[in-house]
Amino acid sequence: MTAEQNNGYTHNRFAVAPMIDWTDRHCRTLHRQFTRHALLYTEMIVADAAIHGNRDRLLGFSSAEHPVALQLGGSDPAKLAEAARVGETFGYREINLNVGCPSDRVQSGTFGACLMKTPGLVADCVAAMKRSVSIPVTVKCRIGVDDQDIEPALDDLAGGVFAAGADALWVHARKAWLKGLSPKENRDIPPLDYDRVYRLKRQNPSQFIGINGGIQTLDEALHHLNHVDGVMLGRAAYNNPMLLADVDRAIYGDARPAAPVDAIIDHMCAYADAHVRQGGRVSHIARHMVGMFHGAAGARRWRQILSTEANRPDADSGVIRRAYAAVQAGSADQAA
C-alpha cells in the first residue's frame, strides 16, 4: 500500500473496533495485555455527553491502555469540535466520528449511519474537528445505507472527508439498513462486500483506508492487508481475546513474545481488586474475560464461574483465580 505517503497514520494497521457496551476501559485493559501495538477504541460517546456529562466516568482511562482512540457520535460540527477538544485534553491519540452505527438511538438523533445520506455534513463535521485538535481525526462508516448505490455513496463520503482533512477512513464492508433490521441483524444480514472497499483504496492510493466487518482470524486480516492499509476486528477479538496475542508478531513484525497467561491473570486480578476498592464490582472486569479460553479444556467451567460468582456483591479477584484453576485442571486432565 502507498499510504506511507499520507499522514503518519500508517502504524495503525490493526485495531479493535468500537463496540457499544463492550469496549469500555476494563475491556481495553484486558486487550492491552495481549498486544502492545493494536489501536483500541472506546465505545461511541455522544458529543453532548462528552461536553456536558460526567467526563471522568465517560472519558477517563489509564495511559497503560494506549494507543487509544475516542469515538464520538453526533452531527453538529460545533458540538463535535468541542467534544473533540475535550477528548484531546484527556489524552486520546485519535478522534473518530461514527458514521456507521444503525441503532434506533442514533437514528433518533440523526447521526451514526444516517450520516451516510449527508456526506457534505460529514465533511463539515470533520473539518470542524480538524480545526479544533492537533491529533488525527478519522471516520468509521458503512459502504452505504438502505437503497443507496454503494458506488457513489461511498465515493462521495470518502471524497468529502478526505477533502476536509480526515486522516483515515475505516469502512465496515456492508450496508446498514435503518428500517426493518435490528442493530444485531445489521451485523450479519446485509452481505459483506470487501471488494467495494478494495476499489475505494485503489481510487485513493495515498489515503489510509481500513476495513472492518466479519473478519474472524489474523490470516484473514493479513489477506486484507494486501488490499487496504488497516484491518479492524470487533466481535472476533472480543469473543476470543487470545486471538490478540499474535497480533504484534503477525501484523507488526514484533517478535517479542506476548505476556504469559499466568501474568495476564495476575495483572487482571490486581486490576479487579483495585476496582473493587474504588467501589466497583469484579463483574465489571470479569464479563470481558469470559471468552479468554475459547476452545480450551476447562473453558466451560471458566465461563460458568465468571458468569455466576463474579456477580455476587462480595466477589473479589478470587473468582478469577478459581476460574483459572478450573482451566488449569482441565488442561492437566486433557494432557493425562
From TrEMBL:
Its EC number is 1.3.1.91. GO terms for molecular function: flavin adenine dinucleotide binding; FMN binding; tRNA binding; tRNA-dihydrouridine20 synthase activity; tRNA-dihydrouridine20a synthase activity. It catalyses: 5,6-dihydrouridine(20) in tRNA + NADP(+) = uridine(20) in tRNA + NADPH + H(+); 5,6-dihydrouridine(20a) in tRNA + NADP(+) = uridine(20a) in tRNA + NADPH + H(+); 5,6-dihydrouridine(20a) in tRNA + NAD(+) = uridine(20a) in tRNA + NADH + H(+); 5,6-dihydrouridine(20) in tRNA + NAD(+) = uridine(20) in tRNA + NADH + H(+). It comes from the Bacteria. Keywords: Flavoprotein, FMN, NADP, Nucleotide-binding, Oxidoreductase, RNA-binding, tRNA processing, tRNA-binding. PROSITE patterns: UPF0034. FMN binds at residues 71, 140, 172, 212-214, 234-235. It is an enzyme of class 1 (oxidoreductase). Gene3D superfamilies: 1.20.120.1460, Aldolase class I. The record marks 98, 184, 187, 300, 303 as: Interacts with tRNA. The active site is at 101 (proton donor). The keyword Lipoprotein does not apply. Residues 16-311 form the DUS-like FMN-binding domain. Its cofactor is FMN. Belongs to the dus family. Belongs to the Dus family. DusA subfamily. Catalyzes the synthesis of 5,6-dihydrouridine (D), a modified base found in the D-loop of most tRNAs, via the reduction of the C5-C6 double bond in target uridines. Specifically modifies U20 and U20a in tRNAs. HAMAP family: DusA_subfam. NCBIfam families: PRK11815.1 (NF008774), yjbN (TIGR00742). This is tRNA-dihydrouridine(20/20a) synthase.
